[in-house]
Design a protein that fits this description.
Number of helices of chain A: 6
Number of strands of chain A: 0
Strand content of chain A: under 5%
Largest sheet of chain A: none
Largest interface: A-B, 93 and 75 residues
Order of helices and strands of chain A: HHHHHH
Mean pLDDT of chain B: 91
Oligomer: heterodimer
Strand content of chain B: under 5%
Low-confidence stretches of chain A: none
Structural class of chain A: mainly alpha
Number of helices of chain B: 4
Low-confidence stretches of chain B: none
Helix content of chain A: over 70%
Distance between the termini of chain A: 63 Å
Structural class of chain B: mainly alpha
Chain lengths: ~160, ~100
């Protein structure tokens, strides 16, 4: 095992543990904060896989924006204490399905890519990703900007439509 | 680095996210489960990009697109959850279904 693999396994354990805590915690805000730990650990994994630009985008967009948005939503939809159990009655079915999905996907990838190794021949710096994005991927990039604009307008319309009634 | 580590981590995160979507009663936490599943997919994309090492950086550019779409999805999703909360004063998916 190389040093990279040791760090990667440590980050993986951190990510899986905090993801489990995020999905099982009874305090809603704690769930969101545990998700920050998960997303940060995944960003560290991106760095170890030579994708440094993606790692920074992950920190900026997920940890910076998405989690703050989620915490705002949790605060705005706060209900009385102890009104609901936090999990549905079919939680064991859900746990079984999640386990089946994880084991199935894991077994498939182990069977398919067991001996392969990541060599890190092309580092994903901001320069190389930007180069690829604005030469080969310009059209999807522009379409994505239209999608983001539509989502923005849709979110504003949805938030305003109830308040003037 | 072996390709298996990111793939196994991604499978585990996907399973945990699926459990969150199916088991949590709070609609906001269901959306968090979806985000976790999308993150697992991103991890897979980056791992295969680093393994395949093509000139176009297909996997990493697709990861950028997936992150942007996930941001759009969570924005719209939370707007829908807030509209739901205004309408029925709860975000409990079991209560709303009744």
């Amino acid at each position: 095992m190389t040093a990279t693999e040791v760090v990667f396994v440590a980050l993986s354990v951190l990510a899986v543990g905090s993801a489990l805590l995020a999905m099982t915690s009874r305090r809603l805000v704690h769930s969101a904060l545990w998700l920050v730990v998960t997303l940060g650990a995944v960003a560290g994994c991106f760095v170890l896989m030579t994708a440094e630009f993606i790692a920074w985008v992950q920190v900026l967009v997920y940890v910076g924006a998405v989690v703050v948005l989620v915490i705002f939503a949790l605060m705005l939809t706060r209900q009385g204490e102890g009104t609901t159990a936090e999990v549905t009655a079919n939680r064991w079915t859900a746990a079984l399905l999640g386990l089946v999905a994880a084991v199935g996907l894991g077994a498939t990838t182990i069977a398919g890519f067991g001996g392969e190794r990541i060599e890190g021949r092309r580092i994903g710096t901001a320069a190389s990703i930007g180069d690829a994005l604005f030469t080969d991927w310009v059209l999807p990039f522009e379409i994505l900007s239209a999608v983001l604009l539509a989502a923005l307008v849709g979110a504003i319309v949805l938030s305003r439509s109830g308040s003037d009634r | 680095m072996s390709l298996l580590y990111p793939l196994v981590l991604s499978s585990a995160l996907f399973g945990i996210g699926l459990y969150g979507v199916l088991a949590r009663r709070n609609a906001v936490l269901m959306l968090l489960g979806v985000e976790l599943m999308l993150n697992a997919v991103n991890l897979n994309l980056v791992a295969f990009d680093a393994w395949f090492a093509d000139r176009m950086h297909t996997g990493q550019v697709l990861t950028l697109f997936a992150i942007a779409l996930a941001a759009a999805e969570i924005g719209l999703g939370l707007a829908i959850v807030l509209a739901l909360f205004r309408a029925v004063r709860t975000v409990d998916v079991d209560e709303v279904g009744r």
